Amino acid sequence: MPNMVQAIKRQRQDVKKNANNVGQVSAMRSAKKRYLTAVENGQDNSAELYKVAAKAIDQAASKGLIHKNKAARDKSRLSSKLG
C-alpha cells in the first residue's frame, strides 16, 4: 500500500484508465464480431458495420491499446470479407 500522496493518486488514476481501456478494447471486439456475423448472415448493412469496426480498431491503435500492425492486420482481414 503506497503511503505517498502522489502514489495514492497514481493508483486512483490507474484504476480509472484501466477501466476505460478495457471498455474500449471490448467495444472494438464487439464491433468486429457484429461485422463478421453480418457478413456471415449476408445482411445489407455490412459495409456500414465495417466502417464502425475499422474506426474502433484505429482508435484502439492510436491510443496504444493494440499494436499498429495488429490493427492493420485486423482491418485487412475484415476488408477481405467485405467483397
What does this entry look like structurally?
The chain is mainly alpha-helical. The chain has one domain: Methane Monooxygenase Hydroxylase, Chain G, domain 1. It is built from 3 helices and no strands. Belongs to the bacterial ribosomal protein bS20 family. This is Small ribosomal subunit protein bS20. Keywords: Ribonucleoprotein, Ribosomal protein, RNA-binding, rRNA-binding.
CATH architecture: Up-down Bundle
- Tally of individual domains: 1
| Poorly predicted parts | none
Judged by helices, strands and strand pairing, the structural class is mainly alpha
Strand-and-helix sequence, N→C? HHH
Overall strand count: 0
- Which superfamily, in CATH terms, is the homologous superfamily? Ribosomal protein S20
The CATH topology comes to Methane Monooxygenase Hydroxylase, Chain G, domain 1
The termini sit apart by 54 Å
Query: CATH top level?
Result: Mainly Alpha
Query: How many distinct helices?
Result: 3
Percent helix range: over 70%
- What is the overall shape? elongated
Q: How much of the sequence is in beta strands?
A: under 5%
What is the rounded Rg? 17 Å
Mean pLDDT: 95
| Biggest beta-sheet profile | none
Q: Which secondary structure elements does this structure contain, and how are they paired or packed?
A:
Elements: H1 5-41, H2 46-62, H3 68-82
Helix pairs in contact: 1-2, 2-3
